[in-house]
Protein: Glycogen synthase
Organism: Caldovatus sediminis
Amino acid sequence: MPALEPTERAGNGRAHPSPPVRAARDPAAAPNGHRALFVTSEMADFVKAGGLGEVSAALPRSLRRRLDVRVLIPGYREVLARGGPIAVVGRLPALGEIPTCEIGRLETADGLIVHALLCPALYDREGSPYGDAHGVDWRDNDLRFARLGLAAAAFARGLADPGWQPDILHLNDWPTALAPAYLAWSGTPVPSVLTIHNLAYQGLFARERAGSLGIPDHAFRIDGVEFHGKLSFLKAGLFYASHLTTVSPTYAEEILRPEFGCGLEGLLRTRAAEGRLSGILNGIDESWDPRTDRHLAGRFGVDDWRGKQANAEHVRRAHGMSDSAGPLFAIVSRLVHQKGVDLAAAAAEAIVEQGGQLVVTGRGESRPEAALQDVAHRHPGAVAVRIGFDETEARRTYAGSDFLLMPSRFEPCGLSQMYAQRFGSLPVAHRTGGLADTIEDGITGFLFGECSLSALTAAIARAFAAFRSRERLDAMRRAAMTRPRGWEEAASAYEGVCARLHAAARRSTLVRTLAGHTPREAR
Ligand SMILES: Nc1ncnc2c1ncn2[C@@H]1O[C@H](COP(=O)(O)OP(=O)(O)O[C@H]2O[C@H](CO)[C@@H](O)[C@H](O)[C@H]2O)[C@@H](O)[C@H]1O
């Protein structure tokens, strides 16, 4: 690549010269740590569609104390519009139909370095990271996310930023999952970790697209990127990444079974048998503290329930609900099949019959949305549904509710149940994935074993019983609010995975050197 003078890209997308940035170091980064590039399709600082966006904002920050970590994200409109300067530090060539792009570098207010993939034709649009305002997937998602994976691989090869080359890639879900494949096809021995936040989203495309994405013919087979005749981004990552993680230990076991493995359980079992699959539980960030959260209508701590009551009053008023001495149940969620929203809508009848209320904040697929709105029409004042995405309302709803419904059919980790517990709202949840790992049945919430309406309503009856005993309710709230839930443990576990992969990479370089091969990095 030709030598490149850094330029700056302002919010209007125009590049202009800026002072050199090559020597700049992230002052908060670990002094001698390894260099990790965290690659993601959403980050709450700019744009989020769900839990991945929150993890992408929190985990790299938590890892900074241990590793020299940077983030790579597509240069969406929200990233370009953030106001601050974006220095251009590199340029990458086209491959197949994947267009050229520039590599931007910006710094968040707290000093985290974020690389933005600048390719306006692919990313500068009105909509979500994955689709338009109506929720329809972008037709060129294969190119958009192949571009992201290819850029991540270019970083690992030292081709993206002349001042910084990661020695590990941390990838997240299918939009980033082609990166390990591109690394393998270019013979680059840089290790990679792929975290599965949700196996159900796989990035499937027609096999005819392979050539346009620079995927070699030999890779289109079962030991490669092929999945039932289609091209699967996620399968590529599962096959080529050095290590796989999921976001809870229970989900790491569940995905080895056909009920949860989405057809990939065979490959996942192989990876698990190789010791290359582990479950690392997500944490929640420090902003989730009811004593200090500025979004709340009233702040509160353990045993100081007046602030909690202020949020309950706000939620009831804001949603046009009646005053009530009964329990307030809540749902704050993407409204999709995974989350068991249909079961929750059916269970709303039982809640109302027993004198409770249900408030819903969420958006998602049209059928679950319509099912909930239908119940709300039948029970005005007792059931309220707001379709939309609103951080402040979400936080007030966690804070004001007594119970959170999470009848998820599967749940890789789940953040909502952790937020709810921190805010003294007890989750009523299916015993699956991260819900099983973060809720103590009868102590910090209520778990039910079978994902059915009868099991859910039985758990709701247990919640009502706890609500009737003030002493029991307060003891459970106290337990839920004080469980440690930060990111430290997860950061330490990810650091452990990185250390093991580096040690293995060093061993294999040594073996290759002794066998007479020149290590690629030395060429
Ligand atoms: N309408 C709305 N308004 C405001 N906020 C809203 C909202 N709807 C949802 N949210 C917020 O979005 C987040 C959703 O996070 P989850 O982890 O529960 O689910 P998600 O399925 O998106 O994530 C996937 O990835 C994460 C991260 O690894 C896993 O925990 C999870 O199991 C997996 O399915 C929560 O913080 C919630 O408060």
User: Anything to note?
Assistant: The mean pLDDT is 92.
